[in-house]
Amino acid sequence: MKNFMYKGPERQAEIEYLLKKKKQKIARQQAVFVALFLLLLAGLIYYISYKQYYVEFPGKVHVNVHEVKVMDDMIIFDMNKELGDVVAPGDTVFSYMYLTYLLEQENVNREIDVLTDYRKSKLALEDALNEVAVLETRAAELEKSISETDRHICLGLSTHAEKSALERQLHETEAALQARRNSVRMLKGQLEELAKAVEKSGVNNNTTQIQNLTKLKKKDFDKGVLRYYQYMDSGVVTKLSVARRTMVFRQEEVMHIQPLDADASNIYVSAYVPFDKVKYCTRGTPVEVIINNDIVLDGYVAVQGACAIELPQNLQSNFSSKDRVNQTIFRLKKGQQVPFWCLSEGTPVTVRIRKIDINDKDDTRVYIKT
């Protein structure tokens, strides 16, 4: 009788409530488990179906950036474009002046061009007059020798062959003399024109010449000697290697400009394709180039199996010994508007191909004869 306990109506109701709550909890756990199982099953079915329907390859974007380099030593004066600026066709990117010109202006011992030309012409005229005098003397001596040869022929001391040789030398000398006399006339006319130019320039003495050189050093470069680099396409400045008022030497880099035209940039995508999946990349097969999982571009296979390369370290797997893959080239289709950042050099992409779109026509295949 000591172990007997009386359960009243309130106690019985509490027990039934607890049993009901326990059943509800078990039912809720079962529902969650079934939902998770169905979700996992749906994901597995989607993954298997996706792999059966699509094939994907990792890759990256390649872009040819225009590297602006100088062809000679020069000074960059004004830089009209900054980093990130858009360059329109015909825009003046920067102005420059050749360094040789500036060095010539700093050389105070350099003569004015008109004085140099005048002096050269005067020396050339003097040389020509001296040659004329020499040729005239030679012609007179040949004529004298011919007269003496005539007398010797009469006396039997010479032959007509000797006379003919002398006459031939005389004709050659007279022809050369006539040519030099023509040169003298031309040089005299040139010297007269240069003399007038020297007189007009007012630099016919050293003092005036030094003053002229001083003026040349202070010359307004914008009107005379400055040159301007104009870009004939549209692009974006992606790198600046020099600043304004900077001296650069031959073949040094000034800036990088990436064209906004896909053809001018020679944009293409290269993907790492395992050798057992190269069969899906036949030439002309349409593909989707996926960037950042939210931008999808249309393209096509341009080169099936361009070369065999080593798979990058970040894409290699510890569970696979295949580190050599086939590099396939893809091109983008025309008429697409693409954000600039998407097609920068080295941008990682995913190339996706639908297996039902594979172009398996025989005319798309390239063969090598052996």
How would you describe this protein?
The protein is an alpha+beta fold and 370 residues long. 42% of the residues lie in helices and 25% in strands. It has helices at residues 9-53, 99-106, 113-155, 160-201, 206-217, 262-265; strands at 54-62, 66-69, 74-79, 86-87, 91-98, 227-231, 235-240, 246-248, 253-259, 268-273, 286-291, 295-310, 324-332, 348-354. The strands form three sheets. Strands 1-10-13-12-11-14 form a six-stranded antiparallel β-barrel. A four-stranded antiparallel β-sheet has the order 2-9-7-4. A hairpin with a 3-residue loop joins β11 (286-291) and β12 (295-310). α3 packs antiparallel against α4 (160-201).
Short description:
The chain has 370 residues and is α+β, with helices and mostly antiparallel strands. It has six helices and 14 strands. The radius of gyration is 46 Å and the shape is elongated.
Number of strands: 14
Structural class: alpha+beta
Q: Helical segment tally?
A: 6
Low-confidence stretches: 206-220
**Order of strands across the main sheet:** 1-10-13-12-11-14
**Which radius of gyration do the C-alpha atoms yield?**
46 Å
Sheet having the most strands: 6 strands, antiparallel, barrel
Strand content: 25-35%
CA-to-CA gap between the ends? 107 Å
Helix content: 40-55%
Mean pLDDT, nearest integer? 79
Shape descriptor reads elongated
**Helix and strand string, N-terminal first?**
HEEEEEHHHHEEEEHEEEEE
